[in-house]
Amino acid sequence: MQNPVPFFTHSLTALSNILVKAEAHAEAKKIKPEVIPQLRLIADMLPLWRQVTIACDHAKGAAARLAGLEVPAFADTETTLAELRDRISRTIAYLATIPADAFDAADARTIAIKAGSHERSFGAVQYYFGYALPNFYFHMATAHGILRANGVDVGKADFLGA
Amino acid sequence: MQNPVPFFTHSLTALSNILVKAEAHAEAKKIKPEVIPQLRLIADMLPLWRQVTIACDHAKGAAARLAGLEVPAFADTETTLAELRDRISRTIAYLATIPADAFDAADARTIAIKAGSHERSFGAVQYYFGYALPNFYFHMATAHGILRANGVDVGKADFLGA
Questions:
Q1: Complex ipTM more than 0.95, yes or no
Q2: pTM greater than 0.95 (yes/no)
Q3: What is the pLDDT along chain B (162 residues), one digit of tens a residue?
Q4: CA separation, residue A35 to residues A39, A81, A89, B109 (Å)
Q5: Which one of A7, A15, A57, A156 is most buried, counting C-beta atoms within 10 A?
Q6: Which of A142, A150, A154 to mutate against chain B (most B CBs within 10 Å)?
């Protein structure tokens, strides 16, 4: 299987740069540091900070599982954009510890995941293309959409890191 | 390269089912058919209908280019959710015409794309993982976010088609 680390790293770096723009927006508008991470598109939806941490966790989880490694647990305690950028940095640093050849045998793996009480098992290809990537980009794009809807000057070029 | 058609088809089917929920919402609230396709998260952003057609075009474009085929052009004329679902159906029908073994030689291809006046050239792997997939899921998730923010009863399970 193609090593997913460079692509996750690129997209997470783009997400961190989007949060830098959100920090500049907060400073310009004198918005307290804990306000923007709590923004949502609608009340019954996860706030920005959870969109960011879940995106990080899909990248970390997918890379670890496809490489046959234990998924490290990161606590969900972030309350500011600076802390969220640190979470992204720690995720990228973890991804960098996985050797590129760890994915050579990935295609043959069976991946079991728990989402709440729900357990699922996939072949690696189905897991990566049908679950991990759509989930990762769902939370990346929803984080972007929350900031976009709230007037932060971000767009698709920021999302793509182009 | 992994055949991308089953994953694009699965996600586009999920997007079509999300639009079915939007149609039910419009009917329940007596919203005219042309209103929901024009919704945006913020004024200087593309409306729902363009998010859907661009998602379709990234799936169609990626599959065609990776298979070494000419990308068919579909006109952007949709004004209702029913027409958008038809656009998705036509995209899925096109994807189904590409034989699975057309992707066997994809890794070695160079992909050139035009975005406005801007031309870019990529290796196929970089194109697929670094451009086509993030773009496809960006527009999928932004379409979902627009509907979610406007009170349509959709969520990540609908997006994943789980």
A1: yes
A2: yes
A3: 999 999 999 999 999 999 999 999 999 999 999 999 999 999 999 999 999 999 999 999 999 999 999 999 999 999 999 999 999 999 999 999 999 999 999 999 999 998 778 899 999 999 999 999 999 999 999 999 999 999 999 999 999 998
A4: 7, 9, 21, 47
A5: A15
A6: A142
